[in-house]
C-alpha cells in the first residue's frame, strides 16, 4: 500500500505539472482526489490493514493528499496567470498608432450667406425677428394693400390650406412688416429672414420653397436715400467695394414709390456676353435682379396704427438664394437644396 500511495503521489504530481488549462486541472483533481478517485480507492482498503499499520498509512495518505492539493493550487494560480497574460496580450491596444481623423462638417452655404447678411444688418442696429410660415391671407395680402383678385393671390400661385383661401403658406416675408408694426412703436429697424412658398416648378432659378430676408425701418424723416444707403452698404460688404448696383422703378402694392435693385452680373461683369456668347448667368442682361424695395405705403402704416403724417419708412425683401448664388458662384439653384456633399464640400 505504501508503494501504491507513492505511485499516486508521483503520477499525480507529474500529471499536474503537464496540465496547462483550467479544464485539465479540474479533470485531474477528480481523477486523483475525487470521491471515485485513485486516492479514495486506496483509502477504502485501509480497513484491511492491521491496527499498527493503519495510522502510519493514514498519515502517509494524508500527506500525499496534502501534497497533491498544494500542487493543484500552485498550478491553478500559474495557469490562471498565464491565461490572463495571454488575454491581455491578445487584447493589447497600441495607443501610438495614429487614429482615424474625424471629418468635420461645416455650415451650409446658404447659412453662411444668411449669417453674413444678418451680421451686417445687426451692425447697422437692426433687430432680427422670426415669424410663422403658415400665415393668414390677411397678413400675407390684404393688410399689405394687395386686393382681392390680385394675380399673386391666385390659387395657381399660392398654397392655400382652407377652402375660403384665408390660410396659406406665406408667399413672401412681407407679412412680417405687419406683424412687427402691430407690436412695436417707431423708431425701429427690423430684419426678418425666413422660408417662403410659391407654386413654381423647380428649375435652375426657381424652387417652390426659397428664402427671403425682409427689412423694415420706420422713423421720422426716413427717405429713399436711407433705403439706398442701407442696401448699397450691405451689397458692398458682401460683394466687395467695387461691386456695381442699379435701382429701377417698379411697383409693389405695399410700397410707394417702389423699386428693384439689381447687381452687376458677376460672370460677365455687365457686358452680357462671354467670348461672344450670351452670358448664361444673366441671360445677356448684364444685371441680376436681387430685391424689391420701396417706401412703406401710407395705407400700410395707417392700418398698423402708425401716423403716416409723422412717420415714414422703407422696406425691402431680398432673395437669399439669389444672393448666395452670386456670392458663391453657384449657377443652378437646385444644387443648393440637393445636399450632395460633393457640392457642399466646395465651400
Ligand atoms: N415681398 C416682395 C416680393 O416678394 C419684395 C418686397 C419687400 C418689395 C418689401 C417691397 C418691400 O417680391
What's the helix count?
Answer: 12
User: How many strand units?
Assistant: 11
Radius of gyration from the CA trace?
Answer: 44 Å
Strand content: 15-25%
What small molecules does the structure contain?
Answer: phenylalanine
Can you tell me the overall shape?
rod-shaped
Helix content: 40-55%
Report the end-to-end length measured between terminal Cα atoms. Answer: 92 Å
Strand order of the largest sheet: 1-4-5-11-10-7-6
Question: Which residues form runs of ≥5 with pLDDT under 50?
Answer: none
The major beta sheet can be summarized as:
7 strands, mixed
| Average pLDDT level | 92
Topology:
Elements: H1 2-18, H2 22-33, H3 38-44, H4 53-90, H5 109-123, E1 127-128, E2 134-136, H6 137-140, E3 167-169, H7 175-183, E4 188-197, E5 209-219, H8 224-239, E6 245-252, E7 255-264, E8 273-274, E9 277-278, E10 287-296, H9 298-303, E11 312-319, H10 320-328, H11 333-338, H12 341-344
Parallel strand pairs: 1-4
Antiparallel strand pairs: 2-3, 4-5, 5-11, 6-7, 7-10, 8-9, 10-11
Helix pairs in contact: 1-4, 2-4, 5-10
This protein binds phenylalanine.
What are the salient characteristics of this protein?
347 residues, alpha+beta, two-stranded antiparallel ribbon, 12 helices, 11 strands, binds phenylalanine
Walk me through what this model shows.
A 7-stranded mixed sheet has the order 1-4-5-11-10-7-6, sandwiched between helices. A two-stranded antiparallel ribbon has the order 2-3. Strands 8-9 form a two-stranded antiparallel ribbon. The protein contains 12 helices and 11 strands. It has 347 residues and is of the alpha+beta class. α1 runs parallel beside α4 and α5 crosses α10. A hairpin with a 2-residue loop joins β6 and β7. It is 41% helix and 20% strand. The site of phenylalanine has 10 residues, from β10 and β11.
Amino acid at each position: 500500500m505504501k508503494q501504491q500511495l507513492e505511485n499516486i503521489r508521483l503520477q499525480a504530481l507529474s500529471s499536474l505539472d503537464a496540465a496547462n488549462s483550467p479544464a485539465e486541472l479540474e479533470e485531474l483533481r477528480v481523477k486523483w482526489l475525487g470521491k471515485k478517485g485513485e486516492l479514495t480507492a486506496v483509502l477504502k482498503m485501509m480497513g484491511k490493514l492491521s491496527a499498527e499499520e493503519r495510522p502510519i498509512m493514514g498519515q502517509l495518505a494524508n500527506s500525499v493528499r496534502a501534497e497533491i492539493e498544494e500542487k493543484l493550487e500552485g498550478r491553478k494560480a500559474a495557469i490562471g496567470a498565464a491565461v490572463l497574460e495571454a488575454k491581455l496580450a491578445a487584447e493589447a491596444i497600441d495607443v501610438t498608432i495614429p487614429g482615424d481623423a474625424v471629418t468635420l462638417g461645416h455650415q451650409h452655404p446658404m447659412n453662411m450667406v444668411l449669417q453674413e447678411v444678418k451680421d451686417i444688418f445687426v451692425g447697422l442696429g437692426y433687430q432680427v425677428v422670426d415669424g410663422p410660415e403658415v400665415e393668414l391671407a390677411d397678413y400675407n395680402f390684404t393688410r399689405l394693400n394687395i386686393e382681392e383678385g390680385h394675380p399673386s393671390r391666385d390659387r395657381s400661385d399660392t398654397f392655400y390650406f382652407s377652402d375660403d383661401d384665408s390660410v396659406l403658406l406665406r408667399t413672401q416675408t412681407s407679412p412680417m412688416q405687419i406683424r412687427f408694426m402691430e407690436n412695436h412703436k417707431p423708431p425701429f429697424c427690423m430684419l426678418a429672414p425666413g422660408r417662403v412658398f410659391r407654386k413654381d416648378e423647380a428649375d435652375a432659378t426657381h424652387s417652390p420653397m426659397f428664402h427671403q430676408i425682409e427689412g423694415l425701418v420706420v422713423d421720422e424723416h426716413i427717405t429713399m436715400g436711407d433705403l439706398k444707403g442701407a442696401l448699397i452698404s450691405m451689397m458692398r460688404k458682401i460683394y466687395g467695394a467695387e461691386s456695381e448696383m442699379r435701382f429701377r422703378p417698379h411697383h409693389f402694392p405695399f410700397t410707394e414709390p417702389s423699386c428693384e435693385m439689381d447687381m452687376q452680373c458677376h460672370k460677365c461683369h455687365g457686358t452680357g456676353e462671354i467670348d461672344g456668347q450670351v452670358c448664361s448667368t444673366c441671360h445677356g442682361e448684364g444685371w441680376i435682379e436681387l430685391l424689391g424695395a420701396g417706401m412703406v405705403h401710407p395705407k400700410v402704416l395707417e392700418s398698423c396704427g402708425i401716423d403716416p403724417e409723422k412717420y415714414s419708412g422703407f422696406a425691402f425683401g431680398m432673395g437669399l438664394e439669389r444672393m448666395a448664388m452670386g456670392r458663391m458662384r453657384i449657377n443652378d439653384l437646385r444644387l443648393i437644396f440637393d445636399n450632395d456633399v460633393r457640392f457642399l464640400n466646395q465651400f
